[in-house]
């Protein structure tokens, strides 16, 4: 795979030659992977449930272009854990996950490697023979999403913030909402309908995740309203209550706590009152680091 001479794959537009200098995300000029596993704790339509539990073939890429102070995966996103993988090695990893019974190949935090992954999928997607999941923070470029049309089957973006001041404070990201909203609309255009197989596993479509932060119900409600107005109430949504104060979150008193059950219930009630029918919710007890993979 060719190295990136002037990296502009995400909104930061660092313009660095990744062979000689690292940009905001700190990703090198090759694919670096920290962790892979068959993951059983994704949404049921991604990893299965009950007797149909097959798991999602998750591949955690090292580095991230966001600097979320509460990142539960900070060891790989911000502490530079990882090993170099060639395209052939990544292909063999995908096949191991497939043989292990995974329903899909779930590319976690792929944004920094989007150009490499496009090239990889063009060569290996048909040989892998599983749905490809793009599991990102949505702080990407619309042209990147367009370029992956037909290569990615399931779009799994995390829609983090409506208020850009929150995005800047907690994730060091300028104009987050503008980029995320544009990208999620493009993802919907790439996969206009949600398609499920006989086991209820999504093989094509869009699933929008939103992590609820303590004290930020107003921001969460604005995101849900935007989804209703722009994507419709049939949109598949994962409303996550799993926040706990990881990484540097303890330095910020307002988010140095788990969300209150009342906060979460208000959002659930809003979705119900507005006739959303494809919503995944979590038990409030999911806010536990025991559910975070051991990197």
Task: Summarize the structure in words.
Strands 1, 2, 3, 4, 5, 6, 7, 8, 9 and 10 form a ten-stranded mixed beta sheet that branches. This protein has nine helices and ten strands. The two termini are 27 Å apart. The model has no long low-confidence stretch (mean pLDDT 93). Helices cover 31% and strands 16% of the residues. Strand 9, helix 9 and strand 10 (279-281) form a beta-alpha-beta unit. It is globular, with a radius of gyration of 18 Å. The chain has a single domain (32-291), classed as Alpha-Beta Barrel (TIM Barrel), CATH 3.20.20.70. The longest helix is centred in the middle third of the chain and has 15 residues, at 114-128. It has 295 residues and is of the alpha/beta class. Helix 8 (217-230) packs parallel to helix 9.
In short:
The protein is α/β, with parallel strands linked by helices and 295 residues long. Helices cover 31% and strands 16% of the residues.
Approximate helicity band:
25-40%
**Can you tell me the CATH topology?**
TIM Barrel
What's the helix count? 9
Order of helices and strands: EHEHEHEHEHEHHEEHEHE
CATH class: Alpha Beta
User: CATH-wise, what's the superfamily?
Assistant: Aldolase class I
In angstroms, what is the radius of gyration?
Answer: 18 Å
Fraction in beta strands: 15-25%
Give the CA-based shape. Answer: globular
Query: In total, how many beta strands?
Result: 10
User: Structural class, from helix and strand content?
Assistant: alpha/beta
Determine the N-to-C terminus distance: 27 Å
- Provide the low-confidence segments as ranges: none
> Could you tell me the mean pLDDT?
93
Q: How many domains make up the coordinates?
A: 1
**What is the annotated CATH architecture?**
Alpha-Beta Barrel
The largest sheet is: 10 strands, mixed
